[in-house]
Amino acid sequence: MLSNAQVAARLLEIRRLMEMAGESFYKYMAYEKAAASIENAPPLAGLVSSGEHLQLPGIGKSIGAVIEQLMKTGYADQLRALHGRFPPSVLELLDVAGIGTKTAAMLYEEYGVASLNDLEAALRAGRLDGAPRIGSKTLDNWRRSLLAYKSHLTRVPLARARTIAREIMTFLAQGPPLHRLTPAGSLRRHEVTVGDVDLVCTADDPEAVIRRFTSWENAEAVLAEGPTKASVWLGGALQIDLRVLPDELYGNLLQHFTGSREHNVKLREYAVRKGLRVSENGILDLTTGAVTTAAEEEGVYERLGMQYVPPELRSGLDEIDLALKHALPPLVEIGDLRGDFHMHTTWSDGRNELEAMVEAASARGYEYHAISDHSPSRGRFGMSVERIREQRRTIESMRDRHPVYTLHGSEVDILPDGSLDYPDAVLAELDLVIASVHDAFDQTRQEMTARIIRACENPFVTIIGHPTGRRFGEFEGYEFDEDAVFSAAARTGTALEIDGQAPRLDLSGTLARHAASFGVTFALDSDAHRVEALEGVELALGQARRAGLTKERVLNAKALPELLAFIRRKRGL
Questions:
Q1: Quick one: how many helices (H) and strands (E) in the chain?
Q2: Most buried in the list 446, 471, 475, 478, measured by CB within 10 Å?
Q3: What is the pTM of this model?
Q4: If you write DSSP's letter for every residue of 54-93 in order, what string do you get?
Q5: 24-72: per-residue pLDDT in tens?
Q6: Cis (ω within 30 of 0) for the bond into 507?
Q7: Which CATH architecture has domain 4-151?
Q8: Longest C-alpha distance within the chain, in Å?
Q9: CATH classification of 262-324, choosing from 3.40.50.1970, 3.40.630.30, 3.40.50.2000, 3.30.210.10?
């Protein structure tokens, strides 16, 4: 049985198709009014069964009959008749700026354009060039609108968006003078995926910066261009938006465009209750007309009597209430991290030699780190017992050559039954063990849950690696009982990894926040397979901050003696 929202959507579909078919304004607007009435009505199931839906505003016998049919069958004769004239996909054309119902009907009836894919193909082939009442400027606008629409259908992994943002920011920095330039939006909030890249900039000559931005050779199209804002399109369905304002508005601009939408809605609602209006142009006192601008973002929250809310927490959950109480926790920072437990070398599937990884970890200023190459089940990338013992001797022989302390670890496969890929006697020789699932992803939820819990219960397992197993574009992750696993990790003193490898970001901030409620300890790791990838720990940090973690909850924010004590406790020593 359809919900109120689904019935309202069907009525609006009928309304749009009726307009395309040339029905009178009053007829199709009756369906729009009925849809609005349904959205605000009590649950339809009870109303239709008693006939009370006919008493709702804007619903007479004819539309009431359509509603009854929709509730009983999910479809309606009137909708079926309209689909006989226009395929449902033709409504996609209305998502393109500048295409209304009459134009959509003309495109279908005269050019056979029945969907966005058809429109894109027609534009590419030039079939609409010279069409009556459609000029070249209109066609260009449609092309840009199509690109903008496509950019909002897909999201790219955070790591890729960060790389693109760095490239365009470097390009902009080489142009007209800038005061400040920083990413905003979902990129700054460290969301796992990014819909588009938002950049905030302050400069004395905004138009010159905009001209520089729209001339970037990597941009395939300019979607919009104005004196203070512009948008460009990159291949791969990614849009980049730039806003440029005077420096005294930097704080207001950055706060507004960082979002999230839910956070900003709650912020504005609170401001209105205080007689204020918040926007990117400042904070307006509705009583006096005075406007407060903020050169720094903290000034926006201070004006509202709040604690500053870090970008990663701006999700629209409880952060506004906590900020009003000045009760937000001090989030873990990059400077708190003393090491990285998860990195691979050429001893397994890494790209750099062991000593190169040690030197790179030392160059990052770490107190310690762990080499965690793969166990035998990784096939040609796995290390036999003899080989991992040889690696340990190599690590011990080179420890005095570097200021960073190298722990000898291993990323050990959790086998399908929950046992580990090395016997306990070998695990006991390692300084640290990361246990990960790398195969048999098709196990049932119950089997996978038992598998991971058994690994947690092994005294030699320090960390569960990339706990959900997800990889962007390849695998969404295996199913398991999150509450049961998180509870087991807390009970056994096993840390859960937030893996910062670009295709993973696992655990996500959302799941890590949930795991934290069980009292779990976390390890923020890069899972680096080459020197450059050690910066992946910054992506792991972003997810930890989204989870609201403090440094006390992070294993690699502990000093070496505390870390070793954590491992000994797990081993019962």
A1: 23, 16
A2: 478
A3: 0.78
A4: GGSTT--HHHHHHHHHHHHHS--HHHHHHHHHS-GGGGGG
A5: 888 888 888 888 888 767 777 777 777 778 778 888 888 888 888 888 8
A6: yes
A7: Orthogonal Bundle (1.10)
A8: 88
A9: 3.30.210.10
